[in-house]
Amino acid sequence: MDGAAPDPGRARTAAQFTELLRQLRAWSGMSYRQLARKAKDAGHVLPHNTLAAALQRDSLPREELLIAFVAACGLPGDQITRWVYTRKDLATLPASDQLRRPGAPPMDAAPQAPARLQRIPPPERATFADATQSRSRAVPGGPSRRRLLATSGADGTVCVWDMVTNTLTAAIDDHAQWAETPLFSPDGRHLATRGIFEEAVRLWDTATMKPAGVLRGHTGDIVWAVFNRDDGTLATSSLDGTARLWDVSTAKPTATYACPARDGSAPLFTTDGRLITVDHSDSRVWMRDPAAGKTFAVFDAMVPHITVSQTGADAFPSVVVRELDGTVRTWDVPPVSAGQPVTVNRNVTFTGPLGRNRSVTLGWNGEVVAIWGGDEAGQAVDTAVWLGDTVSGRPLLPLAGHQGMVRDVVFSPRGDLIATCGDKTARLWRVDHAKRSF
């Protein structure tokens, strides 16, 4: 392997693309049979005779063959992504337009569902950086937007995956114990990670995956974190009895508020950017304006599990409660003005599966609810994800395929993918959102 690998961004036609592939094989110094064995070792299927036939033609190869071949040549994940983007870009243009191709990779690439990501390290939590979140990144040949999925697990590692190629692009091994759910900033520039029993949040530059700062100041374990979708402010709450706002560009706190809940308050940003906190007991939920130091809403509910969502109905953030009898309730939180009365409207009530030890989340502006997790002690573990349509109140087809208990479910902001974590795998599910089918 002498010099740099061929650059796919130079291709303006399918014939030029396959010529660059032939140059890439020569650069690798491997025969077709050696490449086939290399691909097999990496878990790909790449018959040597199929590869030889594909490189003799002037048409675009199949995407799965391209990924297996480029990976076998020894290129890293970001360069594999570049080859895939270039192929997709050429495939979308008529032959008469290919020579005028500007070189910008497409924005809407996505894997088939369910796609299965690599098993190491075992993922337990996940989050998306999607086209609505990710910033444009300058790469040779033109700007692009990557679709990323970050997973975390019990070994403390946070992995970042490219969802076009299902390849691992970065692994962050910076937490001593279980890594909690990672968070992408709304502009896609930063990834925030934290571990269980940790009092700080670590920031990473998604362009380089190098450290970008550490948010220090809490004196107790951080139990919740969320980004403001409007300005990228990060809110954290801790067992030290405080919630803090952080400027991620400087890694400095901008405000500290008292939160009386003993197990940490859930922070939530209203549509006007104001921070509120949500607390609950076994039978009651209450919301506070920490800046004013006042509780503005209280409602009764038998609450084994509560979550907050920044993307509820009508773009309002929501509080989501799943009660012991399986009833799911959501409350929309309107803008909060200091000292002014606030009406929190109950938006949806319908019945989901029974069981105490289940989690719940909302997706896509509150239109879909997902419920997953274990059941009561001694009963069988549910390996599927239950989905409900909050518009019609009817259940949707479950997501079935995991061999063990599902531990996390996240919806892509773009609305075409769901990621599930469990049985040491993360799975991507393509969604026909208009038809509510998966």
Automatic annotation (TrEMBL):
For the keyword DNA-binding, the answer is no
SMART domains in the cross-refs: WD40 (SM00320)
The record, for Pfam families, names: HTH_31, WD40
Q: Where are the WD repeats?
A: 147-171, 215-256, 399-438
Cross-referenced InterPro entries: Cro/C1-type_HTH (IPR001387), WD40/YVTN_repeat-like_dom_sf (IPR015943), WD40_PAC1 (IPR020472), WD40_repeat_CS (IPR019775), WD40_repeat_dom_sf (IPR036322), WD40_rpt (IPR001680)
By its UniProt entry, which PROSITE patterns does this protein fall under? WD_REPEATS_1, WD_REPEATS_2, WD_REPEATS_REGION
Kindly give the SUPFAM superfamilies that the UniProt entry links to this protein: WD40 repeat-like (SSF50978)
Which branch of life, at top level? Answer: Bacteria
User: Which portions of the sequence form the region Disordered?
Assistant: 129-148
Does the record bear Electron transport in its keywords? no
Listed A to Z, the keywords are: Repeat, WD repeat
The protein, known as: Uncharacterized protein
In its UniProt entry, the species of origin is given as Spongiactinospora gelatinilytica
